[in-house]
Amino acid sequence: MSTRGTVVVTFPGFVPDDPAHSRLLRDAGMRIRFAPKTGARSAAEVPDLIGAAVAAIVSTDPFDASVFAACTRLRILARTGVGLDSIDLDAATAAGVVVTTAAGANDQAAADHTLALMLASVRRLVESDASVRRGEWPRDAASTAWDLDGATVGIVGLGSIGRAVARRLRGFGCSILAHDLVPTTMEGIEFVPLDELLGRSDVVTLHVPLNDSTEVLIGTRELAQLRAGAILVNTSRGGVVDEVALFGALADGRLRAAALDVFVDEPPRLSPLLGLPNVVLTPHIAGLSTGSIAKMLRLASRSILTVLDGGVPESVANPDVFAPLSTRN
Length: 329
What we know:
Order of helices and strands: EHEHEHEHEHHEHEEHEHEHEEH
CATH superfamily of the largest domain: NAD(P)-binding Rossmann-like Domain
Number of helices: 11
CATH topology of the largest domain: Rossmann fold
Strand content: 15-25%
Shape: elongated
Structural class: alpha/beta
């Protein structure tokens, strides 16, 4: 079979020798080059990685106008997640590059992880684990866990992941508040302004994309509005939270705890948050599970083959790319 071109895969969850991860592309005559993103990567590095590839299955690599200008054979970027803050969609459209997401593929995994972080914070699992490993046996009042049962939980961003979190919280008898810029409804949830949500919630969990309207959505002012002893959970994007202000609120005891899967800099090697005992940290894996990875790679592979065959795939982030060149924005 003659080759149809090269696909570069930067998503680190891809396993090159796993047939389930690569069968669709290899059977269609595609070459696969694996260049996993495991740390910070600049836009200047990306063109050398992409080279003459016609497609890429990408993690959070930065794709700006300079990258698209250099990668002239590129026809499609298939994101394994749904975040698009690392991709300049206007530049992609101008270059004729289709950008797709894996909408829906990791919603349940992300919701499960959010609940896991929430429970780990409320039950103080990381602190207890560290104490036992030090040879201690903490069972006093100062180390006692708190309750999720009956707590008020505020969900900021009630998209598909936020809704999945809400469904899980019902089993814990939680009162659920929500705030979303897009008008919506969901049975059993009270929709309130953000300031009110912050002031009433025992736990606040963030599920918003990173864009101009959500960058530092939770800053010094918002952290001050959180009720004393509240817990903040972030599985969206690091830039949604002012990490310096969060450190201060945690260090001085105004916030009880935080659980973070995402950070402004990933990995967060220099973050002062790493030294706090009341912070649960995970490496941007909320949406990853064996099942979600299989779904994401399948969607990405199908999107690539559809575009190369001249079709329109699902979950296109820049639909204007299919308009005539003269009418593109």
